[in-house]
Amino acid sequence: MTTTAPPPTAPPPPGRAKTVSRPGDRIFAGLSRGSGIFVLVIMGAIALFLTVRAVSAISKDHANFFTTFEWNAALTPPKFGIAVLAYGTVVSAVIAMVIAVPIAVGIALFITHYAPRRLGDVIAYVIDLLAAVPSIIYGLWGALFLVPHLRGLNLWLDHYLGWTVVFHKADPNSTPRSLFTVGILLAIMILPIITNVSREVIRQVPKMHEEAALALGATRWEVIRMSVLPFARSGIISASMLGLGRALGETMAVATVLSASPTLSAHLLDPAGGTFSQNIVAKFGEATQYGRDALIASGLVLFVITLLVNGAARLIIARRKEYSGANA
């Protein structure tokens, strides 16, 4: 009896691995896709709610919402403007970033490349604790300790840098509850966030890159400048954007320290200006329905500013992806 062998099956084409769709993989893929869609739905719902309430307020506003320097619901008709709030929010956040980012990156580099292991672990633990402190605690500390102790610094800046207009103090006896003080407080608050993320990103730099630079005779600073910072640049930018988001939206700490004023002043040491979050928390409880719509409209502007900042950060990060070390 003769048997015929089955015809040989053709081997799968090279480069195409046979994928097996398991139930667990399908469930995980569906959950992941649903989570991403759910986040987009939430963002869209927030934007829609803010837009509807903002249009209701702006359509009834008898002042220019974007240029009026006054926020007063007691007037007839009421006046609402965001010029002062937008200025105070952006300026205080910029001051915080200018102070916090270099210090945070320096701390991260010190922990990962200079400090002994035990000392670095202690510093990292303290930074983690600072990140867990509630914002109201920072606000109380700023109002009771930081504000009184900044009077001397304000007078020094006014004496030596008052010619720049920015650091000119119109009233030497005024309390330093200003945007400059708020910027310093916000810098202290966002410092742990930027430090922690930057530290973890710097630790991901391939050791072979650093060892190769050392083998070529580079100093420790040259290794950091040529191998570490280019590789970690995108992560540091992302960490900075996280800190900037915290600075733009901070509420209680700013409300505790800042003496809100409807005045737009270029003198950062004078108690003038305000921020979106601080104005919302201060006026929401006593506002009428129309006033609350106006406050929600200012929240929409803050929402748009945050989206623009994050979008710009994503563009910067995307342009840095061509660095070969990050793609290795």
TrEMBL record:
Locate the ABC transmembrane type-1 domain: which residues? 86-313
Which InterPro entries does this chain map to? Answer: MetI-like, MetI-like_sf, Phosphate_PstC, Phosphate_Transport_Permease
UniProt xrefs under Pfam families: BPD_transp_1
Q: Where in the cell is it found?
A: Cell membrane
The annotated topology with respect to the bilayer is: Multi-pass membrane protein
What cellular-component terms does GO give this entry? Answer: plasma membrane
The record's comment on protein family reads: Belongs to the binding-protein-dependent transport system permease family. CysTW subfamily.
Ranges that cross the membrane: 36-60, 80-110, 122-147, 179-198, 294-317
Residue ranges annotated as coiled coil are none
Q: What does this protein do?
A: Part of the binding-protein-dependent transport system for phosphate; probably responsible for the translocation of the substrate across the membrane.
For the region Disordered, give the residue spans: 1-22
Q: Does the keyword Transport apply?
A: yes
Q: What is this protein called?
A: Phosphate transport system permease protein
Which keywords label this protein? Cell membrane, Membrane, Phosphate transport, Transmembrane, Transmembrane helix, Transport
> Residue ranges under compositional bias (Pro residues)?
1-15
High-level lineage: Bacteria, Bacillati, Actinomycetota, Actinomycetes, Kitasatosporales
